[in-house]
Design goal:
The chain is of the alpha+beta class. The chain has 3 domains: 47 residues, no CATH class; 69 residues, no CATH class; 91 residues, Diaminopimelate Epimerase, Chain A, domain 1 (Roll). It has a 7-stranded mixed sheet with strand order 7-8-6-5-4-3-9, sandwiched between helices. Strand 4, helix 7 and strand 5 form a beta-alpha-beta unit. It is globular, with a radius of gyration of 19 Å. The relative contact order is 0.11. GO terms for molecular function: nucleic acid binding. This is DHHA1 domain-containing protein. Pfam families: DHHA1 (PF02272). It comes from Candidatus Yanofskybacteria bacterium GW2011_GWA1_41_6.
């Protein structure tokens, strides 16, 4: 009530109905929240390359070169305006952008090795919402890459989960043939058709049944 204006900016499929209840809103599923916000506040300026990279990762278009190396940089810098302003300027310059990407490639090589070790050591085949799918316990930062890798290995979906703050945090990824946002909504979560998530309080049992532990 103390604000002169409230606008809702969103791109999640599961949030469409509630977003459109707002008096003023911006809603587009084919763009990330970062690009939608930039276009709303700076409609006369081109979207910076760094924000385009963030969108490329966020909605999993993966069209820009070295997108996973850039993800390494984005995920490791401090979350403050000074740092991100400098980073955005670095990406607008060919020389400094290339230096950042080379740093990201080094980190990416280690991350890929780490993810392979995690998946090989504890992935399980589970029954969830009528599907036999891979489930793996891993930090949320690996959810997208690990989930999509497991989904390709055993379609049509995959589960990446972790315990956090007394809750089971579940990330779902699909190959597009299953709308995981609808599954997530059943458990109080949401997201997109191919990427969604939800949380379950610790007192509840796992919402899936283990069929077997995948052993190599």
């Amino acid at each position: 009530k103390d604000n002169k204006k409230v606008i809702v900016i969103d791109h999640h499929k599961s949030a469409e109905e509630s977003v459109k209840m707002a008096q003023e809103y911006v809603y587009e599923m084919n763009h990330s929240g970062s690009v939608l916000a930039w276009r709303y506040f700076y409609s006369d300026l081109a979207v910076p390359l760094l924000i385009r990279y963030i969108e490329d990762m966020d909605i999993w278009k993966l069209e820009l070169p070295d997108v996973f190396a850039v993800a390494m940089i984005v995920n490791t810098v401090e979350k403050d305006f000074d740092t991100w302003t400098k980073l955005a300027k670095d990406f607008d310059n060919d020389s400094t952008r290339n230096k950042q990407i080379e740093r990201g490639k080094i980190m990416l090589k280690y991350e890929n090795k780490l993810m392979d070790e995690i998946m090989d050591s504890n992935k399980e085949i589970v029954k969830f919402e009528g599907y036999e799918t891979y489930s793996v316990n891993a930090p949320h930062v690996f959810a997208s890459q690990m989930g999509n890798a497991l989904c390709k290995e055993k379609p049509p979906m995959a589960i990446v989960w972790q315990w956090s703050g007394g809750k089971l945090e579940v990330s779902l990824r699909s190959d597009g043939s299953v709308d995981v946002s609808e599954i997530a909504k059943k458990y109080g979560g949401g997201g997109h058709k191919a990427a969604a998530g939800f949380r379950v309080v610790a007192e509840h049992s796992f919402p899936w049944k283990i069929i077997k532990i995948d052993e190599k």
